Amino acid sequence: MDLLRSEPMQLVQLIIPFESAHRTISYLGDLGLFQFNDLNAEKSPFQRTYAAQIKRCGEMARKLRFFRDQMIKEGLSPSSRSSVGPYVNLDELEVKLGELEVELVEMNANNEKLQRSYNELLEYKLVLQKASQFFHSAQSSAAAQHKESEAHILGEGSVDSPLLLEQEMSTEPLNQVNLGFVSGLVGREKSVAFERILFRATRGNVFLRQVVMEDPVIDPVSGDKVEKNVFVVFYSGERAKSKILKICDAFGANRYPFTDDLGKQYLMITEVLGKLSELKATIDVGQLHRANLLQTIGYEFEQWNLLVKKEKSIYHTLNMLSLDVTTKCLVGEGWCPVFARDQIQNVLQRATMDSSSQVGAIFQVLQTKESPPTYFRTNKFTSAIQEIVDAYGVAKYQEVNPGVFTIITFPFLFAVMFGDWGHGICLFLATLYFIFREKKLSRQKLGDIMEMTFGGRYVIMMMALFSIYTGLIYNEFFSVPFELFGRSAYGCRDSTCRDASTVGLIKVRDTYPFGVDPKWHGSRSELPFLNSLKMKMSILLGVAQMNLGIVLSHYNAKFFGNDLNIWYQFVPQMIFLNSLFGYLSLLIIVKWCTGSQADLYHVMIYMFLSPTDDLGENQLFFGQRFLQIVLLLLALVAVPWMLFPKPFLLKKQHEERHRGQSYAPLQYTDGNSFELEIDHGSHGHEEFEFSEVFVHQLIHTIEFVLGAVSNTASYLRLWALSLAHSELSSVFYEKVLLLAWGFNNVIILIIGIVVFIFATVGVLLVMETLSAFLHALRLHWVEFQNKFYQGDGYKFSPFSFALISEDEQ
Predict the structure, then answer these.
(1) 223: Cβ–Cβ under 8 A, 6 or more apart, which residues?
(2) Which helix (DSSP H) or strand (DSSP E) does residue 791 occupy?
(3) Transmembrane region positions (predicted)?
(4) Which residues of 201-225 are buried (b: 16+ CB within 10 A; e: fewer)?
(5) Which of 71, 503, 614, 743 is most buried by its number of CB atoms within 10 A?
(6) Nearest by Cα to 317 from 330, 303, 304, 302
């Protein structure tokens, strides 16, 4: 089985000539089965051979990011059907990207200047319109007031009136006050402060008139839409003018020239409108040209981006190789699976031929005691389960992989807690949507939660199928029982069924063939019966899975040749666990088969307190008391068996090794490669600390003895969550759906159905699914995997272009 143990790995040395190095690494990236070790770890990135090339690729990546940002601003996106043209040389691409960047930057600068001028002219037009309206209305009101005053004065018969009028008309023009004015626009949120500062700075010797603009105006400086007011400030004197100009600059007010001459106003408005139309046409042409350029870039963007990423990764990998100047070659080391040896050698030969190199690359296997990386060949079905296992810890090289068993046990334990075939069907239909549309969805960017759900679609499908199975066993469809496999085995004592709720039912036909009899649901004894059933079932499943974990530890010890772990860990652990909880499982099965009324709590408690006492009515089979005494003694013996022998035997092995009595010959594999020699059963030539080994064994023994009890109790969460799911489903059905049905009102019924659907989806199909998932995860990580799984390895991370493409998506 490919998943049971990780792929056999080998440490390989590659000697590659300079002229074929780039092409060799590129072909290995296409293959994606070689993990390079960094032979230049002591050097900084700037001291490495190909630092200049990486800098070039980084600069090209910056230009491509600039193009992407510009396309996003324009509302374009890189074409998914990127044209796959001929191979583009990196030097040619660098020149082309530089030219496109210069052209695009120049376009942006010109467009920005034109847009700023256009926005300034728009503001100028608004100032001309609003200020001219103000001046026109002011002159009209002044003329009207003047006529009114003349009529008032001429209408009075006072003797002094002509003299005053003559005196007023004879006033010299030089004595009249000459007012200047400043016009422009200021932000509306600043207008009140602007007016207050003007008043205080000039001591009230100004007159400010503001007009509110209905629509926001694009500010020429920031380019953002801003709500503004048109203002005109009248003043007297140059000192006041200088103050007003400084205040306008401080508030970011845009000033524009204006005249009170009506003829010149008309000419200025006409001129501004003409310039606006010319600038608009110019900007439209420039934006069309820019959009065409960005669209052209978009067609090639993905190809260019992938090429730059590949080239950068190639040079990063070349920097991990050691430079041998004397032989003009690069020396690299790394890990590869044994099955990929022929493929890698073919790739090296092809790279030598394609680069027209006179010398071929050399492939040789090295002997090492270093622990190799862990590599499992997975597919889209098994990858999600493997990720769940790896989240706890990556498997040590070639230890038993829990993922093989987790494929079945994880969705099954989930379904034990989630058992309802109606909910399972809903979950299954949801996963079918992801599975049927996986090609389309895999190319889209989903949210974090949707991305996780999509990645685990096959796990969720298995969870849904097992939930349908356990739901059929529990006979629950949204908490409603059905007679799917025949009629119930129980019936009333008479045709009226009057005493059904008091005396109970009687068995009238054969046992219901599959699952729980539907008559149990709704009866007085439903809860005690289901509690007893699910609690005992949880203990059986837990003991079975823990035994599986201990058995797998035997396979690990046997594979690595560690006899100490077999005889002083596996054997006593099996004896201890099954002497107590294996015996409890046996009692449960015997009680089910015989229909005995024995109290198992009493049996287990007095097995420790009074093992020699007579069992009485709690005896299930002949010889039970003697068996209990034997099992209790075996459990007591198993504890020191786990604790004492192993540390002393390890000390003895260490002493013999240093006396030269324990040497093993090197083993050869087929071909010229050496088999990796990895010491799994001892501490090698490291200093041996007996106290540390003994304390470690003591902790391991205490952990297992206490864990045997706590882990078995932990499996009772299967019963608890199954009961909670069933009761919640029953509450939603009876207290929402049936209650709404009982009102005989269509509106209340519709409301009840909507509430039932939302409660079922939100609580049972989302929250309960997540809860059961996390509890199943804990049972695998803690109760199952700690029996055999070390999880202290590290992943095989090959140099692969496929991983670059996935990261880009």
Answers:
(1) 115, 116, 119
(2) none
(3) 412-436, 457-474, 537-555, 567-590, 626-644, 746-767
(4) ebeeebebbbbebeeebbbbeeeee
(5) 71
(6) 330
Residue with tokens 């209990």: 628
Helix (H, G, I), strand (E, B) or coil at 60: helix
What the block records as the tokens of 28 is: 């290995």
Cβ neighbours of residue 515 closer than 8 Å, sequence gap 6 or more: 472, 473, 474, 475, 485
pTM: 0.80
Spatial CB neighbours of 171, under 8 Å, sequence gap ≥ 6: none
pLDDT tens digits, 238-268: 888 898 899 998 988 888 888 777 778 788 8
Strand partners, 13: 333, 364
The closest of 52, 92, 31, 88 to 312, measured between CA atoms, is 52
* Nearest in space to 543 (alpha carbons), one of 592, 597, 583, 485: 583
Closest CA to 421 of 463, 483, 460, 475: 475
* Residues 6 or more apart in contact with residue 594 via CB below 8 angstroms: 620
Q: Which residue has the higher pLDDT, 164 or 349?
A: 349
3-state secondary structure of 82: coil
Q: With contact defined as beta carbons under 8 Å apart, do 236 and 180 qualify?
A: yes
Helices (H), 675-745: 690-714, 717-732, 739-741
- Residue 344: partners with Cβ closer than 8 Å, 6 or more residues away: 12, 28, 31, 33, 34, 336, 363
Candidate from 365-369, 445-449, 612-616 with smallest mean pLDDT: 445-449
Interhelix angle 191-201/238-250, rounded to 10 degrees, is 150
Give the tens place of pLDDT for each residue, 397-437. Answer: 999 999 999 999 999 999 999 999 999 999 999 999 999 99
> Mean pLDDT of all residues in the chain?
86
What residue type is 625 in one-letter code? R
Strand partners, 232: 183, 209
Cβ contact 573:552 at 8 Å: no
Residue 664, classified by CB atoms within 10 Å of its CB into exposed (0-12), middle (13-18) or buried (19+), is: exposed
Q: Where are the alpha helices (DSSP H) in 3-159?
A: 18-31, 51-74, 90-155
Q: Which amino acid is at 183?
A: S
Token couple for 564: 């100490």
**What six digits make up the tokens of 607?**
């097995």
- Non-local (6+) Cβ contacts of 237 within 8 A are none
Q: Tokens standing for 750? A: 């519709």
Tokens at 125, concatenated: 């037009």
User: Do residues 347 and 799 make contact, with C-beta atoms less than 8 angstroms apart?
Assistant: no
For residue 191, CA distances in Å to 137, 251, 261, 658 come to 22, 9, 27, 91
Output helix, strand, coil percentages for the chain, rounded to the nearest 5: 65, 10, 30
CA 520 to each of CA 340, 488, 595, 731: distance values in angstroms, whole numbers, following the listed order:
59, 9, 17, 17
Radius of gyration of the chain (CA): 43
Task: Choose between 272 and 633: higher pLDDT.
Answer: 633
CA distances from 315 to 21, 55, 680 (A): 10, 10, 37
Q: Write the DSSP assignment of 479-525 as a string of letters.
A: TB---TTS--SEE-SSSS-TTTTTT--EE-SSPPSSSS-GGGTTSTT
Nearest to 179 by CA among 264, 241, 253: 241
Distance separating alpha carbons of residues 521 and 680, to the nearest angstrom: 55
In whole angstroms, give the CA distance from residue 581 to residue 708: 8
The phi, psi pair for 374, rounded to 5°, reads: -100, 130
Distance CA 542, CA 519 (A): 29
Residues 6+ positions from 753 with CB-CB distance below 8 Å:
737, 740
Token pair recorded at residue 402: 């829990």
Structure tokens at 352: 């030598």
Identify the DSSP state of 373. Answer: P
Cβ(714)–Cβ(783) under 8 Å?
yes
